[in-house]
Structure formats: structure tokens, C-alpha cells
């Protein structure tokens, strides 16, 4: 049903903290909102009650998804990362052959991706295009704007 989710220990802790918050803060708040709406009268024509019930359903779905994600987690440790080729948790410096700009990305799981921090998902087009490449290789990556060519300059942790 769910595939393996490769993440760092820090991200797992963040996920667990979020789950605790959802269970202990958000869930009781949703129940209070339903109770308050129920006190306002006829449930057949009570839009506030319907909205509160819908919000509770969405919250419960998020909790189930997070529980499922946590159950399928595999912890990645930077100590065991092979830097001879681009893989998850490696920091790769690439040269865009068209613009001659150097960029450094860390290849991470979907859950940890944050472009502002230079972390791209292993499932993104660029992430997939770089996987398995070694220093000196040229990766041709198909993106919506066309084909980009990147030369692998450096691979570290």
C-alpha cells in the first residue's frame, strides 16, 4: 500500500511532533468546534456544523496519512552515504552547461525537499536525472521547459 519513505532522523522527529500536535491539540479543537455548532440548533440546516464535520474528516485523513508515512520510514544516516556517485543525501555541485552557472543541491526525500534550502527531491526531474551520475558526467534532464544539461562538478555529504 505505501512505499518506503527514506528520511533523516531529524525529519522523523518533526513528523512525530506533528502527529502528537494533531492528536493532542487539533483533534480536541475539531471536537469542540463540532460541539459548539451542534448547540446552535437544527443540524439539517447548520452550515457551521457541516463545515466542522468536514474539517474533522480532513484532519483524521491527515493523521492516518502521517501514521502511514511514519510506519513506512527508513532512516538514512549521512555516515553511510556513498559519495562516488549521486544518491540520496549527497550534496552535488552541478554546472548548467547552457548558463555556465554552478548550483549545489542536496538530494533528499520528497518529504524533506525545500528548494530555498537547496534541497531537491530524489523524485523531481532534476533529482532523477542526477541519480547515479559520477563526477565529470553530463546529465541530460528533461523539464517542462525542455532539456537541460548539467555537468557533475563535485559530490559530497
Automatic annotation (TrEMBL):
Pfam families per record: GreA_GreB, GreA_GreB_N
Transcription elongation factor GreA/GreB C-terminal domain location: 83-156
Location of the Transcription elongation factor GreA/GreB N-terminal domain: 6-75
InterPro entries associated with the record: GreA/GreB_C_sf, TF_GreA/GreB_CS, Tscrpt_elong_fac_GreA, Tscrpt_elong_fac_GreA/B, Tscrpt_elong_fac_GreA/B_C, Tscrpt_elong_fac_GreA/B_fam, Tscrpt_elong_fac_GreA/B_N, Tscrpt_elong_fac_GreA/B_N_sf
UniProt xrefs under SUPFAM superfamilies: FKBP-like (SSF54534), GreA transcript cleavage protein, N-terminal domain (SSF46557)
Transmembrane domains' residue ranges: none
This protein's UniProt keywords: DNA-binding, Elongation factor, Protein biosynthesis, Transcription, Transcription regulation
GO MF terms, alphabetically ordered: DNA binding; RNA polymerase binding; translation elongation factor activity
GO BP terms in the entry: DNA-templated transcription elongation; regulation of DNA-templated transcription elongation
Family stated for the protein in its record: Belongs to the GreA/GreB family.
HAMAP family, A to Z: GreA_GreB (MF_00105)
Function text: Necessary for efficient RNA polymerase transcription elongation past template-encoded arresting sites. The arresting sites in DNA have the property of trapping a certain fraction of elongating RNA polymerases that pass through, resulting in locked ternary complexes. Cleavage of the nascent transcript by cleavage factors such as GreA or GreB allows the resumption of elongation from the new 3'terminus. GreA releases sequences of 2 to 3 nucleotides.
Protein name: Transcription elongation factor GreA
Organism field: Niastella yeongjuensis
Gene label: greA
